[in-house]
Amino acid sequence: MKVAVGQFSPSGRLPENIRAIEGLAKRAADSAAELLVLPEESMFTSDLVVGNIREEATAGWPQFVDAIAELAQRFGLTVIAGGYEGMGAANRPYNTIVAVDGSGTVIAEYRKTHLYDAFAYRESDYVQPGDGTPVVVAVGDFNIGLVNCYDIRFPEFSRALVDAGADVLSVSTAWVSGPLKEDHWETLIRARAIENTCWVLASGVASEDCVGRSMIVDPMGVVKGSLGDERDELIVFPLSRDRLAEVRATVPVLANRVLGKAV
């Protein structure tokens, strides 16, 4: 299955971002990709949003999902993208990833579990966390586990997705730059691939504040395609189930695992 990982620099305005996504979706479809993975905050960048984020999320989320559905149907591919969904019980929006298939049908929604309360930032001040339920969705011959940015720092979260059947991790991020952050990013993405012997599709926002560096990593941790800080770019690569089976036969860590299993 050919997949595409898109990278761009979302503004604070939904219409501008939909136009950018449209361009990436067209290029993905022209490359015969069946899946397009886009960043966290594809809907809008929270720090740039015009107005109150709570109000903008409530009004904008249905418009965002409808627009993604229209693009997915028009170009005949599954699209995974992040935005801010309505209001939770704590009067804060969720940071949500939506997956829409080529018929324009929403096939999954995942609300971010681990909020970015680190490096002197507090996402929990304006976002409500989800309940932590792993979300895995079938796309073509693969099962895609949905991961949102800071979630990638928690290995047990990715393992829960793999235990739920995922053989690909789709990671949508707005990875903030800073000392060692770029090193952490690549190390974490490759580590999740290696320890779970799975494909990883990592899409990042590229902006003044975020590192970009989107990449596709195979189940042995080999980077098969990557970007730098380009602000409107795409990686396309064919995922292989044969490669997945080969690595899992060579390094059967999932089968050999003891911790958490009866012995």
From TrEMBL:
Domain CN hydrolase: 1-241
GO molecular function: hydrolase activity
Keywords, ordered alphabetically: Hydrolase
Pfam families assigned: CN_hydrolase (PF00795)
InterPro entries with a match to the protein in the record: C-N_Hydrolase, C-N_Hydrolase_sf
Origin superkingdom: Bacteria
Keyword Hydrolase: yes
CDD domains: nitrilase_3
Family: Belongs to the carbon-nitrogen hydrolase superfamily. NIT1/NIT2 family.
Protein name, UniProt field: Carbon-nitrogen hydrolase
Lineage, top ranks: Bacteria, Bacillati, Actinomycetota, Actinomycetes, Mycobacteriales
